[in-house]
Amino acid sequence: MASTFYILLLFCCNIVFLISPSIAKTSFRPKALVLPVTKDAATNQYVTQLHQRTPSVPVKLTVDLGGHFLWVDCNDNYVSSTYKPARCRTTPCSLADTSVCGVCNGDQSPGCNNNTCIQNPFNSIFGSSTTAEVAQDVISIQSLTVDGSKPGKVVSKPNFVFSCSGLASLTAGLASGVKGIAGLGRTKIGLPSQFSSAFSFPNKFAICLSPSTTSNGVIFLGDSPYVLLPAIDISKKLMYTPLIKNPITQAPTFFGHESSGEYFIRVRSIKINGKAVPLNTSLLSIDREGNGGTKISTVNPYTVLETTIYNAFLSTFDKQVRSATKVAPVAPFGLCYDSKSFGNTRVGLGVPSIDLVLQNKKVVWKIFGANSMVQVSNKVVCLGFVDGGQEVNRVPRAFIIIGGHQLEDNLLQFDLPKSRLGFSSSLLFSQTTCANFNF
Ligand SMILES: *[C@@H]1O[C@H](CO)[C@@H](O)[C@H](O)[C@H]1NC(C)=O
Ligand SMILES: *[C@@H]1O[C@H](CO)[C@@H](O)[C@H](O)[C@H]1NC(C)=O
């Protein structure tokens, strides 16, 4: 018995030995990927760049954290020998969750083919939408070195599923040079899911947005380490809170009540300098129509609060800075001060900290001056939150939308299998910034 076992073992290991070196040579499998993100000065949009098509061309895209998929303006000279329209009832259509089959009356071209499934690309900046064919093409992207410190080899993903819009005006409102939207949402064809299944790495990703309009922030697709200069693994700084699914999407869809790919968290209360903001807590939960709750958004430049929350928030903040000199508000903000009222700290102006209290009193997302205040001129600083109104202008909607200014120089990691958000609070405490990835 013993000798038979020994022989089998040898046999098996020889085979493994013969096969593995050739696999190693032919296929490089990245552990994670990395994308640069720049803040567009004119629009405050966060813009990234992918390479798509054959021959490969750079494509600039606005980043929409909750966007359901990648869509590209195909009206703008889309040329590629690897372009494939998704024929009705094939796998890309089921991944895209659409069984609607389309015809196109124009000349056959990328974005205009018969017998393809169609979906609704959504311009979340402008609020516009259209119907467009589902398609596939190759995308190339930089990998992240195993130590998480810099970009590695460029890797390609053939047959990446996206939406190819034939409507030129769908890019209205997007930053100059931008040709579509990169959706990082929680769907089967969101960028994180497609790349994680293509390269078999965990379905986690992280965003680190920079306030700078001249240096790059970074998106990591895949797991940590995420290392910024000077050699700091910022993934070590994370606290965690559950991600919540909203059963109803805000994006237009064929079937109405479809669940949202956006990322919601549970804020239980807001404190300023430790004082609770008095608010109707039922607004903090998502109701049956999908209204309410707190979502995280990269397409809102500042955090948006429903009117009653906003008013209570401003008055609580103002009471906590009694000695500051108030000045006339500068739109879109409602509360502004003479900037000489506040000193400077490592984490921005020395103002009371704003605490978003999450699943329990110990889990708190703290917002300091660099993320709460906006310098609107040499002399004036404003509380960087805006009034979302009481009227429901787009149904359903969140009553707290944590926007870009409050996310900058914070690391946020979205762990989809565990359905949790890791958040770092201000990286300025760690003496680094989101512009410090070694691109
Ligand atoms: C699609 O089919 C219609 C009618 O069958 C035809 O008129 C049209 O030219 C076709 N379009 C393309 C892009 O092939
Ligand atoms: C709190 O908000 C809910 C949902 O909008 C509303 O039905 C309720 O009347 C509000 N309660 C108070 C005390 O304003």
TrEMBL record:
Keyword Secreted attached: yes
The keyword Secreted is assigned to this record: yes
GO biological process, one term: proteolysis
UniProt cross-references to SUPFAM superfamilies, sorted A to Z: Acid proteases
This protein's GO CC annotations: extracellular region
UniProtKB keywords: Secreted, Signal
Taxonomy, superkingdom: Eukaryota
UniProt main location, coarse: secreted
Domain Peptidase A1 per the UniProt entry, residue ranges: 46-424
Alphabetical list of InterPro entries matching this protein: Aspartic_peptidase_A1, PEPTIDASE_A1, Peptidase_aspartic_dom_sf, TAXi_C, TAXi_N, Xylanase_inhibitor_I-like
Any one GO molecular-function label of the UniProt entry: aspartic-type endopeptidase activity
Signal sequence range: 1-24
Stored PANTHER family: ASPARTYL PROTEASE-RELATED, EUKARYOTIC ASPARTYL PROTEASE FAMILY PROTEIN
Family to which this protein belongs: Belongs to the peptidase A1 family.
Protein name (database record): Basic 7S globulin-like
Organism: Quillaja saponaria (Soap bark tree)
